[in-house]
Write a structure and sequence with these properties.
The complex is a heterodimer of chains A (about 180) and B (about 550). By secondary structure, chain A is mainly α. In chain A, helix 2 (about 65-80) runs antiparallel to helix 3 (about 85-105). Chain A has helices spanning about 1-60, 65-80, 85-105, 110-115, 115-150, 155-160. Chain A starts with a helix and ends in a 24-residue tail after the last helix. Chain A has a single domain (about 1-160), classed as LemA-like domain (de novo design (two linked rop proteins)), CATH 1.20.1440.20. The chains are: A mainly alpha (about 180), B alpha+beta (about 550). The interface of A and B includes residues 110, 113, 115 and 134 of A.
């Protein structure tokens, strides 16, 4: 009789643990998805800023049609990208074209002094910073989630209910915070 | 070091209840003492003989009186707690005359953006409001209440003197306080124990000046009932002075370690320890806001605004009663993080200075080109917050080897004619050494043009009188600073202070040779202030 109770108790405890682990995994998944949507908001904001930036720069940079067009093209690619993998690639490309645009803009003192341009640059800087901060936060969350689904005992629960490892948001050059040099 | 902001969030400490318990204990002890004394003086005659050999006060209270007293004290401390924490953010900001930053203004827009970035970095969990204190001092603070409302505030002086990276790191430091939860502790502790300070202040003013505002008006009309009133006030004053001293014990609940932690979090966020080191150094070299209304809440600020703080010491007393760690060790840790030495910080500051110079010269040359003039709305460049180059003294040899070297960057000073008198100027940091008798001459000469930033700083310096508890001149300082480049006396250094009580412009004065060292901006600011005054008089 006593043994039966012990078995029932142990089974009950195990079930409770599984439920708890399952719930915390779901919670972590929701929170990194939420963090991704935060990045998305900032990326969209960057997409909205670029046409204005290109338009303002056009007035001064008469000899740089190629650079401006590549920025516009990269932006379009980033807007059209749907899967996370495509998005990462497109956004990375956009970041590097923006960086080269800013490098070229250094040669145009009149452009650098333009009020609209200065405001746009400030907006772009803050958006880039927000992207990088929300990326940090997203990666923290993904790291937590990935650790949980790979460590014992929660990996058993994860495998049973098909929790898949999530992808980090990595940029090409990880060593530095990836902001185009818009300060001068 | 916690791994992420989620973990910081989880490891929040709750020493707030300790300060609540302390407040309760304070009231209970106080109440027992007062009731005991009152009973002893008014209800017992000297013939009562059972008092011998026991502590008088405790013997005087029987069980039921004791119970009533303690009950009353607990109720009172609860009431104190409730009133001082009610709408604490709004009231604190009002106390310091804070206003919300205006995104329409270009400089304040940068501040708004930086605060938003910090909010994003903490996962969008906190909505942080950007506030500005209209004084020319340099400081920053964070506030949080029980409802989770958070505020990051900076002074106007800070906003005008730091560049974007430095501002980012300062805001990240404050965001670190908010995310790690110690902001709530310090806010509540400061607000609760600040009440004693306020009572003390008000009663002193009423006692000495006859009204709350502290201005000297004759109060001869109510002289009839004045005597008793004054005695009452004197008692209130003495009691509150005692309470204020006890209230300073609130600092016991504020660990100075949390500043190191917030610095570390700021670096985690911005990945830029050098910018934070620069910012801390610039703030440390300047007027940090002593004499402003929020001074009593020193724990909420990034650097202690008080003049007589014990922060620079490492002993046990300092550990217990100071709210901030020594600035040198904070900067030292940050430099270690950046694998940098003090000279690197010097270089970084000089670089920032050069960037500043190029920024301010280029638009001027551009104005002369033709096409530039044709575009409407282009003539005035955006007022960008710019760095003040105050190179760090940590790495530089303390004692200059020869005369006439810049006390900040050790460059040779060059003789220059300025407004008709000779001054010694540093070409690198734009500082200037002026004979005190020549200052008046320079200031008196009419200047045509001041940059927008100088005019703005002059406006703030003018308007801060409204905000300050007293004239900053009274509350500030004769702090030993740099070695005078002219007389090279290491013992008798120059002193950092305001130039006079009317124009609160910070300078370094040498008492031996009567020379004044102006850092960049300071001389222009003084000229601008004086000129504004003259033109105001002329209008009348």
């Amino acid at each position: 009789m006593g043994i039966l109770w012990v078995v029932v108790g142990v089974v009950g405890l195990v079930i409770l643990m599984i439920v708890g682990m399952y719930n915390s995994l779901v919670q972590m998944r929701v929170s990194f998805q939420n963090a991704w949507s935060q990045i998305d908001v900032q990326l969209k904001r960057r997409h909205d800023l670029i046409p204005n930036l290109v338009e303002t720069a056009k007035g001064y940079m008469t000899h740089e049609r190629g650079t401006l067009e590549s920025v516009t093209k990269a932006r379009q690619m980033a807007v059209d990208a749907s899967s996370i993998k495509d998005k990462l690639a497109a956004e990375n490309a956009l970041t590097s074209t923006l960086r080269s645009l800013m490098a070229v803009a250094e040669n145009y003192p009149n452009l650098k002094a333009d009020q609209t341009m200065l405001r746009l640059q400030e907006e772009l800087t803050t958006t880039e910073n927000k992207i990088s901060f929300s990326r940090q936060f997203y990666n923290d969350e993904v790291g937590r989630y990935n650790t949980a689904i790979q460590t014992f005992p929660s990996n058993l629960v994860a495998a049973q209910f098909a929790f898949k490892a999530a992808e980090f948001f990595q940029l090409d050059d990880i060593a530095q915070r990836n902001v185009p040099q818009v300060k001068f | 070091m916690p791994y992420s902001f989620i973990e910081i969030e989880q490891s929040k400490s709750r020493s707030i209840y300790w300060s609540l318990a302390f407040l309760g204990a304070l009231y209970i002890v106080g109440a027992i003492f007062i009731v005991g004394v009152v009973k002893y003086f008014f209800f017992y005659s000297s013939s009562d003989s059972f008092l011998y050999g026991r502590p008088v006060v405790f013997q005087l209270l029987d069980a039921s009186t004791l119970l009533w007293t303690i009950g009353g004290a607990v109720l009172m401390s609860a009431a104190h707690w409730a009133t001082s924490t009610y709408a604490l953010i709004d009231r604190t900001l009002q106390y310091m005359s804070g206003r919300i930053a205006d995104p329409a203004d270009d400089v304040e827009r940068v501040f708004c953006n930086v605060v938003e970035e910090a909010a994003v970095a903490t996962g969008g969990k906190y909505r942080i409001e950007p506030y500005i204190i209209p004084i020319a001092a340099l400081n920053a603070f964070a506030l949080q209440d029980f409802q989770g409302r958070s505020v990051i505030g900076v002074t106007e002086g800070l906003l005008k003197r730091l560049n974007r990276e430095q501002l980012e790191s300062v805001v990240a430091h404050e965001a670190g306080h908010i995310a790690s939860g110690d902001c709530l502790e310090t806010t509540v502790t400061s607000v609760v124990f600040k009440s004693f300070d306020t009572i003390c202040d008000i009663s002193r003013r009423m006692l000495f000046y006859g009204n709350i505002s502290g201005s000297q008006r004759s109060s001869s009309r109510k002289s009839g009932s004045g005597g008793q009133f004054a005695i009452l006030l004197l008692i209130v004053f003495l009691i509150s002075l005692l309470l204020k001293l006890i209230g300073n014990l609130g600092a016991l609940f504020v660990s100075r370690q949390r500043e190191y932690r917030a610095d570390a979090l700021a670096v985690r966020l911005t990945r830029n320890p050098l910018a934070l080191a620069e910012a801390l150094h610039i703030i440390d070299q300047r007027w940090k806001g002593s004499g402003m209304p929020g001074e009593a809440m020193d724990a909420i600020f990034i650097l202690n605004p008080r003049q007589n703080a014990v922060d620079d010491h490492e002993d046990l007393f300092a550990n217990l009663f100071s709210t901030h760690p020594p600035i040198k060790s904070r900067i030292g840790i940050l430099l270690d993080m950046a694998h940098a030495k003090a000279e690197d910080l010097n270089k970084a500051l000089v670089k920032a200075q050069q960037r500043f110079t190029s920024l301010h010269q280029e638009p001027e040359t551009a104005v002369q080109t033709k096409e530039f003039k044709d575009i409407p709305g282009m003539s005035t460049p955006l007022p960008v917050p710019v760095p003040v180059p105050v190179p760090v003294m940590l790495g530089v040899p303390e004692m200059p080897s020869k005369k006439d070297l810049c006390p900040r960057c050790r460059e040779a000073l060059t003789m220059e004619k300025y407004e008709g008198v000779e001054i010694m100027k540093c070409s690198l940091c734009q500082g200037a050494l002026v004979k005190e008798m020549n200052v008046l001459h320079i200031v008196g000469t009419k200047e045509v043009h001041f940059s927008e930033r100088i005019v703005d700083m002059a406006r703030i310096t003018r308007e801060q009188v409204r905000v300050m508890k007293s004239n900053p001149f009274d509350s500030i300082y004769d702090q030993k600073s740099i070695v005078c480049p002219s007389c090279l006396d290491a013992e008798q250094r120059m002193t950092r202070r305001f130039i006079n009580s009317k124009y609160p412009v910070e300078v370094d004065k040498c008492k031996l040779c009567a020379r004044v060292w102006f850092d960049r901006d300071e001389l222009e600011l003084l000229q601008c202030l004086y000129e504004k005054d003259q033109s105001a008089i002329a209008k009348k």
